[in-house]
Amino acid sequence: MQDVITRAKIAALPDHAELRVIAGAIITRAARELIKEKGITLQFDEDADPESQDKDEHAEHAIVTVVGCDRVGIIARVAEILAGSNVNILDISQTVLQGFFAMIMILDLSCSQDDFAELRQKLEEAGEEMGLKITLQHEDVFQYMHRV
Amino acid sequence: MPFSYTQDEILETIRMVELENLDIRTITMGISLRDCADPDLKVAGKKIYEKIVRCAGNLVEVGEQLERSFGIPIINKRVAVSPIALIAECSRDDHYCYLAQVLDDAAREIGINFIGGYAALVHKGFTNGDRNLINSIPQALSETDHVCAAVNVGTTRSGINMEAVYRMGKVIKKTAERSADKDGLGCAKLVVFCNAPEDNPFMAGAFHGIGEPECVINVGVSGPGVVLNVVKNQPDTDMGTLASLIKQTAFKITRMGELFGRTASRKLGVPFGVVDLSLAPTPAVGDSVAEILEAMGLERCGAPGTTAALAVLNDAVKKGGAMASSYVGGLSGAFIPVSEDQGMARAVTEGALNIEKLEALTCICSVGLDMVVIPGDTPAETVAAIIADEAAIGMINKKTTGVRLIPAPRKKTGERVEFGGLLGSAPVMDVSNFSSAGFIKRGGRIPAPLQALTN
Question: Is this prediction's ipTM beyond 0.90?
Answer without folding.
Answer: no
